[in-house]
Amino acid sequence: xxxxxxxxxxxxxxxxxxxxxxxxxxxxxxxxxxxxxxxxxxxxxxxxxxxxxxxxxxxxxxxxxxxxxxxxxxxxxxxxxxxxxxxxxxxxxxxxxxxxxxxxxxxxxxxxxxxxxxxxxxxxxxxxxxxxxxxxxxxxxxxxxxxxxxxxxxxxxxxxxxxxxxxxxxxxxxxxxxxxxxxxxxxxxxxxxxxxxxxxxxxxxxxxxxxxxxxxxxxxxxxxxxxxxxxxxxxxxxxxxxxxxxxxxxxxxxxxxxxxxxxxxxxxxxxxxxxxxxxxxxxxxxxxxxxxxxxxxxxxxxxxxxxxxxxxxxxxxxxxxxxxxxxxxxxxxxxxxxxxxxxxxxxxxxxxxxxxxxxxxxxxxxxxxxxxxxxxxxxxxxxxxxxxxxxxxxxxxxxxxxxxxxxxxxxxxxxxxxxxxxxxxxxxxxxxxxxxxxxxxxxxxxxxxxxxxxxxxxxxxxxxxxxxxxxxxxxxxxxxxxxxxxxxxxxxxxxxxxxxxxxxxxxxxxxxxxxxxxxxxxxxxxxxxxxxxxxxxxxxxxxxxxxxxxxxxxxxxxxxxxxxxxxxxxxxxxxxxxxxxxxxxxxxxxxxx
Amino acid sequence: xxxxxxxxxxxxxxxxxxxxxxxxxxxxxxxxxxxxxxxxxxxxxxxxxxxxxxxxxxxxxxxxxxxxxxxxxxxxxxxxxxxxxxxxxxxxxxxxxxxxxxxxxxxxxxxxxxxxxxxxxxxxxxxxxxxxxxxxxxxxxxxxxxxxxxxxxxxxxxxxxxxxxxxxxxxxxxxxxxxxxxxxxxxxxxxxxxxxxxxxxxxxxxxxxxxxxxxxxxxxxxxxxxxxxxxxxxxxxxxxxxxxxxxxxxxxxxxxxxxxxxxxxxxxxxxxxxxxxxxxxxxxxxxxxxxxxxxxxxxxxxxxxxxxxxxxxxxxxxxxxxxxxxxxxxxxxxxxxxxxxxxxxxxxxxxxxxxxxxxxxxxxxxxxxxxxxxxxxxxxxxxxxxxxxxxxxxxxxxxxxxxxxxxxxxxxxxxxxxxxxxxxxxxxxxxxxxxxxxxxxxxxxxxxxxxxxxxxxxxxxxxxxxxxxxxxxxxxxxxxxxxxxxxxxxxxxxxxxxxxxxxxxxxxxxxxxxxxxxxxxxxxxxxxxxxxxxxxxxxxxxxxxxxxxxxxxxxxxxxxxxxxxxxxxxxxxxxx
Lengths: 593, 576
Description:
The complex is a heterodimer.
Chain A: H1 3-15, H2 19-58, H3 69-117, H4 120-125, H5 128-170, H6 172-179, H7 182-219, H8 221-226, H9 230-283, H10 288-333, E1 353-361, E2 370-378, E3 382-386, H11 393-400, E4 408-413, E5 416-417, H12 423-429, E6 430-433, E7 442-443, H13 444-448, H14 457-466, H15 470-475, E8 483-484, H16 493-507, E9 511-515, H17 523-537, E10 541-545, H18 549-552, E11 557-562, E12 565-570, H19 572-578, H20 581-588
Chain B: H1 5-9, H2 12-44, H3 48-95, H4 100-106, H5 108-133, H6 135-150, H7 155-199, H8 201-206, H9 210-260, H10 267-309, E1 330-337, E2 347-354, E3 359-363, H11 370-376, E4 385-390, E5 393-394, H12 400-406, E6 407-410, E7 419-420, H13 421-425, H14 434-443, H15 447-450, E8 460-461, H16 470-482, E9 488-492, H17 500-513, E10 518-522, E11 534-539, E12 542-547, H18 549-555, H19 557-574
Parallel strand pairs in B: 3-10, 3-11, 6-9, 9-10
Antiparallel strand pairs in B: 1-2, 1-4, 4-5, 7-8, 11-12
């Protein structure tokens, strides 16, 4: 499917609901344009009638017959047409705003809902910034275009056609004079638009490079200061800034040129129309009164005729951005969704345990990471997964929660294949505590109750107490009502972890996957985390991806992973006796003397 | 606008050019209706030559207008280019004189925004000012005066229209401003929800919260829809309203010309140009209001840039002092310190002395002032009270280059720049030879992974060091710190991402290869500083004890407490 078609389909899908409104807008626009292009003829008539009246009046013989009635009639008609034009324009404009607001809101919500249904793989493969730019840039471009370009395009096109039609019906010669320069104007306009786009792209590219440099340097300013690198940093900056200087000039020149040039050409066209019209009136012996009216009319039409050309050329880039945006959104909507298996068997509790049988998996098809794992956990037991970075520990977690689907082998919950379980029920039973804790903007209450919004206040406080974060929270001036965001430094890394542990305790999942954090935290928090982890693990079946030996020692079974294979298995004492890889790891990390 | 003055002065010829052409442009568009009037008169009086003459004049005038427009754009672009590039360079220059304190006061994120987004606004502002803002008053006054000259008795129509349009724009644009401010706030909130939901997608999914997230998003999105509707309706009202006003005025003008035409027959030729002036007047007001609204953003940005330019660096080095060779001794005399933004002092009255070549450990709980104290040695901040000496010289009397050569500080957060490994290491010593690179990499235990790259030291580090692990970044950052063989090396918890074995290797290598260097090690774990010649124990910004490990166990209860807590955990690890 071509890109343009994809974009148009996207608009079609999202505007379908509003077809009646759209039809109304189009019809009203046409009516409104008709009033608009017709109105100047009455202005011309008024001048013609006035001129006739004056001629009669100035001639003593006909003075008694002179009457302003025709003049008044023309004015009444002009008023009527003006008012009708404004009224229809107003209604159509209000409807347009309404459709714009409603349909872009629908696009926004549609995009977000779609993203919520997508696989974790999608998010792992795409940078957050890129996904976010769908909201901040693409949707924004579409909205701007809808607001300023798409409907405008309809009315400008109508105006253009209408003006040509009425001009030719009034006076062919004058009409030809008005449109004669159009091909030239369009060529000039397109040339400028293209030049402008090319040079603006170049400007953006240089600015982008400079911005990248600035971003990196300023964020590393402390390194620059401590190493005394200010001069070096300035040299790099100057070089890029000079490139921007050159690019800015051309970019600004060509993009700035469009407006004055089109305005100038419009004035030039007007001058040609007036000059030609006057010459024609004088030479062709047209009646003076009619001639004056004709010129007044064509002064209006020449401007009305030029307006769409100016408008549409300046809308060009806006439309292009919107089409690109719509294409990107259409691509997102075409992405596969997570298989939620809503008709699948519902997992209500875990009675026996969880089993991994001969698991093969890789994030890329041709790069296998896990090579046939077999792990068994009985209900209530804790398994520790240990191994160096890249051994596949985190991958196991990704599979147990069905963030990713296994390529080969089986994962069985009480003997039920994971792929046949209702996904919601699976995730309800499998809780996770991630290595990097995520907090959401909102109050502490909202954050702890994240997984169970219906929990009572008492339940929440009890979870916070078990996670050893209650004391800290009540020490804050606003206690549980304190507003937080992930960015602010109200909480240390360790405390964020405690909040996320509390969150999991509150949802009370029978099966738990815990990815222990590696970051250094201070002593007091370290102890709290230990206690909180003991609390969350107690009474649950759990997988712990462990980094701290004090956690590992508590495990019922330790599984040592290396390069996607289980190389050792057993409890702490057994593994030490083996004097293998685990023993090596253990002694290495224990150089405390 | 004040801060732009010197930059505008540099472009005085372009500015004169832009102003002249803008005046020509305005006059040419103002003159056209006059010629129209003349040509109509000529038609009425059947004067063929005059018609021809005025026709040619009309076309020449339009061509002059186009040429003036092009030249004006040329000059405006030139001014915009020159002013923004120079201003940006000066802001960047200024930031390079900043101290840690200045940077933290603004935050690096905000400085980046000022250099990028605000600068962009300024660029737009300058273009608008030179292409529109000067034109508007000329057009306004010109159209007004010429309009009255065309049909003097209809002056009141012009005044009536100005009043109507001004009143309407006043209401609309002030309302619009308020809507836009609110809109921006809601938009930010919506983007935050989207962003957090992306970053926390695993949390959202594992707690089955997709539906709630959608509800949350929809609520915010609906509020934006509400604002969109208000803004949209306002705009929808505005354009028809302006059209209606101008049409009614035109109608009035024609009507009054009509009923008075017998007394003023020449008005018949003037009506078309009077209408043109009315339209020009209206556009001048509308475009004026719009540019003013848009310029306000640029002015705010200019204000934010001004803030940076007017900030004085809070650490200043003496310029007229001779370069010195300092040794590695350090002394603190009654030093107290508080951060620029806080009232609470971070260090109280600290005094100690360190001899050249010693290894010093600094321990204490989070927030006890370890980093604050260490940052005073390379003079990243000045103490609030007391004096810091390095090599027996008061730091306030030392020039920056000598100090940087003497003291090397390896930050807690390892930051590398995009470029090759060699380029990053040479930031510590510009002319470092291949041998020196290798030596530094070996001491910092970075050689083992650098050697695994085919291109070795020429291996590229990506932006945000995405292709390196935390431990690798720290090793390179240590290598950069020691490559210049500084007299004093400060490691601020710089080995936190290294495993214990590598950490030990680094310490041994330092011991062996940097014998004469005074090394400060800030550590969370006491294990990292057991071998130190002296350990400084900080508690709540006070130096509570100093001495060797064994002594401290006897004399300092705080030290013993920290030690016991760490040992007990470790013993648990070991036991069983």
